[in-house]
Amino acid sequence: MGRIKLLLLYDILRWEEKSFIDAARKLDIDITLLQVPSIYGKVGDKATLGVNDVDVALQRSVSFYNSLESTILMESMGLNVINKSYTIMVCQDKLWTTSLLVKNGIPVPDTYVAFDPSAVNKVAGSFLRYPFVIKPIYGSWGRLLALVDDEEDLRTVIEHRSYMHNPIYSIYYLQEFVNKPGRDIRVFTVGDEVPVAIYRYSNHWITNTARGGKAVPARIDPELEDLALRAARAVDGVFLGIDVFEHPEKGYVVDEVNAVTEFRNTVAVTGYDLAYKVLEYIVNMVKH
Fold first, then answer.
1. Residue 139: which of 77, 210, 219, 192 has the closest Cα?
2. DSSP character for 213?
3. pLDDT digits 0-9 by tens, 150-198
4. CATH number at residue 133
């Protein structure tokens, strides 16, 4: 078999995408870059994109819609894309992710869903204790999260959402506030391995590094490894970033799963070449 031919799908060429280009050189992979906003193609026809001889594609678009729809287009042409469109869609939808985790016996924070403000008040009055968190069904980077401390906070959040002219904001995803030890854990899975993880520390309850959280290397114990791999299988993913909380009563719980994950801060603090690991996995997958 000759050189592996990899198609890298992207919309913005960030540090992560450049690291994949470097790793491809090290592994002697023939890599082709395809900027999603510039492409057009006939559904089901590789020739319109000129990708007839590609072995596999790696999805790295920042935009959810770019990543999902371009993956669907590539899959219509018979291309294997990492991650697949099903995984990207599942991981974008917090309710879908949580549902699959629960179905597979994976611990999560207590989560409720309501479709009307009156139902939200019933959940707050009968099931969830203040404080709790309201999240958008779709979203990333810790945006539009609300920590609800009391009834007045809840009234304000509901009122603000009523002015958002998007039907998705009429669906309320309500989650217990987990009293974390000042950190959460971002765990990476590549196939059936968990090669690296980081703690994300912050004085704020939102610990995303995009919101100022500080990354440090994390120890991967057998329980955390097993949890991450089971979560990856639940969403049928290959390369994932899984957010885990240390719950004071439940132990490890999975909060979210990211299908097009960033990892610059992880490499910076651990020195682990995650891009190389992903492409090494792809080479072995294609050859076998």
1. 210
2. P
3. 999 999 998 988 888 888 888 999 999 999 998 999 999 999 999 999 9
4. 3.30.1490.20
